[in-house]
Amino acid sequence: MALLTFTNTGISGLTAAVPRYKINNYEFDRYFSKDEIKGVVDKIGVIERRFADEKTCSSDLCHAAAEKLFKEMDINREEIDLLLFISQTPDYRMPATSVILQERLKLPSSTITLDINLGCSAFLYGLTVVYSMLLTGGIRKALILDGETRSKVYSLKDRKTGFLFGDAGVAALVEKNEKFGHSWFSLNSDGSRADLIKIPAGGYRMMSSCETVKEKVVDEYGNIRSDEQGYMNGADVFNFVIREVPKDFYRLLEYSGTDISTINYFVFHQANSYINGFLAKKLKLPDEKVPATIHKYGNTSSVSIPLTIVSELKEKLIGHKRLLLSGFGVGLTWGTAIIDVEDCFIGEIVEI
What contacts 29, CB < 8 A, 6 or more positions away? Predict the structure, then answer.
């Protein structure tokens, strides 16, 4: 558990991009019957999601979002001193995707570039890295690009994951300004549960081979995937979330001295509608303060928190607003943040 406090740093603008290709889960009957599909979709609440085509990567989605942000906020590219790219579906094993995006966005060669390979909590981790670096005094403005093409790493023949994940990218401009006041973060990790959400092969522990890409039946229910496709132990992940997330939620409220009534919106990682509904009920949060996008974009991993802000809170972040953000998943890692925004620019979602 790490508890962190920052002063006078915050998000001044957000944009998002999603693929044009839209899937209706109830009609996605390539491998399962209508009855099987309805049972799964009714439970997870993912009605629609977006899939990138074979040539579109996370960086392409982030690039589109960033270009829109630059144009609509009239950002001077020469003032971007830090570019942080967040993804577990990068362009290559090497080089880092952030370096490629620095060139594509025509940022100066003095720009610091970093990649973060982390899952569903990564946007919060990324914010703490950027906030920390901004407070050193040598950085004027920072750009966070967070993108995932999870459709490429999960099997559509696996009921446990085949109807859940979607693709998206976001761009966030982060700056120093006294108007942001204080922000607070709690970050946590537990590698003993790393096997609950995992892609076993394709890295350097188990390198790609003819065997690792071969599809096979993996359980008594007939689910099919290869060792280079992701799996998730849904029951144990659910137990982790309902045990750890509420504790972290209240821990940060106490640490920050924040009255829960002063928080305008609670933005959770969009895991699935069952988990998120359970959390909101357990924490006794009013529905109108808990925006959701799981039904129309699916689980987009680390992108889901900023994507939900762009999708659901446009025109609602005028003036001073306080947000509580909560991310949890792959690792396992989880985190909670309380941040203030002031007249935060929110762009329309781009389709590419």
Answer: 37
